[in-house]
Every structure is written in C-alpha cells, then in structure tokens.
Amino acid sequence: MDYESTSFELLGDNNNRTEEESCDYAEPVFVKERFWMVAIFGTAVCIINIIENTFLSVMLFKKKSYRSSHMLYLALLAFFDVWMAIAYIPLMSLNLFVDYYQSVVLLRAWFAYMLPMITVSHIAMTASSFLMVAASLERYVITCHPTKTRYLQKNRVWIAAFSIMMGVTCKFSQLFEMDIKHSEKCVDTMREYQLSLSSLALHEVYSYWRVLFRTIVTILIPFFLLAFINVRIVLVLSKNEFKVLQSAKLSDAKRKSAVRNATRTLVFVVFTYLLSNVLNVIIILWEYIDMELLTQQFETFYMFAVDVVSLSTIVFGALRLPIYVICQTNLRKEFAAQLKNMLSFNSYSGYLYSPSKNMTIEDMDSDRRTPADPTPKQYPILLSLGSVLLVESDEKNETTCKVIRQTSRLDFSDMSEKVQIV
C-alpha cells in the first residue's frame, strides 16, 4: 500500500488486467497463501489498529496540555494510522477476496473506489513520515541542544501543519495517474475492468516527478534521515544517562527523566517505522538497479514483498499504543483510568460502601430542625450517592444512619430519614 512505484499495478494484479486482447483470466499464483496473510490476518490487525489508534487520538487530542506539547505529533500519527488501517481493508483485503472468490461484483466495487482510496492512504502515509521527521528533529534538539528549542516548540503547530501539507502536495496527483478502462466485450468476466497509466503519468516531465522526485523525497530521504537522527539521539541518551542519575536536585532529575522517557517513546515509534519500511527501500533500490531481474527471476519474492510492506505498516501502527504505555508512566495511568471509566457500568460515580452489611429504611417520618435548635455537630463521615448523602451517626450506641437529601447546590434541607442498621 505504501510501495510507490508498483502499488497501483500490484493492487490491480497487472499481470491479469493490463492485456486488452483477451478476456481470459489467469488466477494469480499463491492466491490462497496471500489471501490468508493479507485478507484474514491483515484485516484482523487492521481492526485492532483502528480501535487502538482511535482511542489514542481521542485521548491525546482532548487535552489542551497534550495538544500544546510534543504529544501533538503522536496524536496526529495516531489519527493518520486510523486512516491507513481503514484504507487497507478495502484496498488490500478486498483485492484478495476478488481473486480468491473470482467475484465480478467485488471487482466492480473495488474499481469504484480504488483511485480515491489509495490516494488518501498515500497522503496519510507520507504525512506520517514527515511528522516523524519533524518530531525527531525536535527531540534531537531537546536532547543535544536543550537551549535552542524555543523556536521549534513555539512553532510546533505550524511545523505539523506544514508536514501534512507536504504529504498532500506530494501525493494528491496520484488520483490522476491511472486510467480505469471498461471493456464491453469482457462484461461479466474478471477482465471487465483494466488498469493502465494515464497520459499524465506517461508524460516524460511528469515521470521524473512521479518516479524520481517523489520516491526520493517521500520515502528515501525520510527513511535515512530518521535513521541518522535517532541513532544520534540514542548515543546522546546513553552518554548522558549517568549524569542524569547523579543529578543533585530531585526535581531536576524527574524533569530530565520525563524528557528522556518522551524521547525514548519517539525513538521506539521511529524504530518501528524504519522496520516497516526497510524492505520497501530495498525493493525500490533494486528496481532502479535491475528491474528485469526482480520481476522475472524473483517474481514470487517481489509479489510477497509488496504484501509484507503493506502489512507491516499496519502491524507496526498497532504497536504504537503498547509503546506509549510501556515507555511513559503518566500516559499508562491516564489511559488505564480512562479505559476503566469506559468499561464501568456504575452510574453512581464516587459511591463508597458503608461498613454495615445491610440497611433498610424503616422509619419514613421526618424530624425537622427549627432555627432555635443548636447547630448540629459536624458529621464524621459523608458518603455520596447521587443526590443523596448517607450520614453515619455520631453517637456510639446509636444504630441509625440519617439520610439527607440535597435541595440546592449550597445547602441541605432539614428533611432527614432514619435508616435502621440491621
């Protein structure tokens, strides 16, 4: 799905759909193995990815303190991960369903949304790459040159917006690079639609943009730049670890520890990105060196490699939430509390159980206090239950518990009920 030079052809199984002379359909090789790997396993991972990153993006976006900190990059990464996972199912999984079941209905559906869907997915992936570069540069400056971080932190929102716009600028033209042709003589067959490069994509000048510039700028440069920056960060962290541990001030040590944990979080995130793209970079370089060798003698490897590249993007995207939970204690506690609230069905938030085993309301008569009555003693224990307060008696031998109902925000009524402790 993020494989620049062959994504359209392989998504459409170009070996079966680029020839217009015949309506004969040849089933792709290893379709059963690819079906289980991409359509079944890939879809399951996508569902996990969508759930995790939706939860993560909501948690990070809803707090202003996160939106105004380096967490903004992580929130945006989670947001784009959701879009990539959503796009994977109709693009990759359904494509294998089409070949596995040889369904003309699914084939028509796939071609109906393929071009806009793959454009959106590529924009999301490219924007994510640039966001990681921006986040890594900020972490590098914080780690290596902590006195020069003001500009990056002050303009973080604009830098993130620029990264997203770069992703849109580099990839929006993919929508116009392919032509879908409908063959009248092959109606109701698996060759009813055929995919080919558009006249724009075949233009000599545009081909330099499509193949060279875009591949270098959106894949190769981010990959090697992220690798270099994060190696430098790891080296600096390991070098300064002993100094941080010997910090004289506890507050200073805690602050540096928090910065170090945030940096390690980003390093792990970038490391998973590099792992998911290393095969992609190898294949791209191999294409430029010897395309014929790759597509003929290593055809099977080539086919599975493209599937693995797309699948690894989704798998490592699903690992972001576990990375945040492991590396940052504050996020782990906050996520656990939020998850507990989401899964809790108790509508009486804050209710505490009384030491008594059973309570019954036996006497419903009310005892009113007059203004002349002396001010009652402070109740020792107040237990909140919705709009009702349970008040434990302050008399040692008293076996009742008063129930006071709230009538306003500021005070309570004189009305009380005796609750017999059984």
From TrEMBL:
PROSITE patterns: G_PROTEIN_RECEP_F1_2. Residues 52-324 form the G-protein coupled receptors family 1 profile domain. Its main location: membrane. It comes from the Eukaryota. It is found in: Membrane. One of its GO terms (cellular component) is membrane. GO terms for molecular function: G protein-coupled receptor activity. CDD domains: 7tmA_FMRFamide_R-like. The keyword DNA-binding does not apply. The chain crosses the membrane at residues 35-60, 72-91, 111-137, 157-176, 211-237, 265-289, 301-323. Keywords: Membrane, Transmembrane, Transmembrane helix. This is G_PROTEIN_RECEP_F1_2 domain-containing protein.
